[in-house]
Amino acid sequence: RSLWKLTWTEAKLFLREPWAAFFTLIFPLGMLFLFGSIYGIRALNELLDNAAELGGTHVFVNLGNGQELRGEVYCCAYCELSNGMPDEDYCQGHDGKPEKAYCEGPDGEPMGMAYCLGAEGADAAECVTNGGKWIPPIDEVGCDVRSGRWIPRSEDRTECEARGGIWRPKAKDQISCEAKGGKWVLNEDVLRFAPSPVRAKD
Questions:
Q1: What are the two backbone dihedrals, phi and then psi, of residue 117, each rounded to the nearest 5 degrees?
Q2: CA of 159: how far to CAs of 91, 170, 179, in Å?
Q3: 50-61: string of b/e by CB count within 10 Å (b at 16+)?
Q4: What is the model's pTM?
Q5: pLDDT exceeding 90 applies to what percent of the chain?
Q6: Residue 54 and residue 28 in contact, taking contact as beta carbons nearer than 8 Å
Q7: 57, 102, 145, 171: which could join 176 in a potential S-S bond, CB 3.0 to 4.6 Å?
């Protein structure tokens, strides 16, 4: 009996504002059945799945050309790692480090790799601290000059696994970001408001 009274009271409150009741209860269901009858639920699910694969945080859907659903995906947040750099997809090599592009010599071995001249150092900062001179790796142009073959980084999972690496995708939500020890940051460049037009003074 109490449930009936509560339901009846809620219904009377809605009926006091017919337009509010229409857009709250009837309109959303109508749009659901409309899009479902035109495109089917599968089309919308595929669109949302594709947006999730891209790491989108917001999706806008429109009718397209009347025959298909079209969506716009926006990434309004990203994962910032502990070193302050944004998280990115990469291929982990056999040494456990991110794969890098390199120049392969005529003998099939890497050539022109970075090294520390005159001291020991695994990177430029350590090399300079130890009194050495850091020699950076040659680029693609330098590789061609030395008759080498430029091997770029793997661009996707298939290419990475074909080389025997492990594909490490970037974090696409707050949970996976914090699992990496990162911080989920709102992208203010995307979310900022457009400047209001300046009105001419009379």
A1: -90, 120
A2: 9, 17, 26
A3: ebeeebbbebeb
A4: 0.49
A5: 3
A6: no
A7: 171
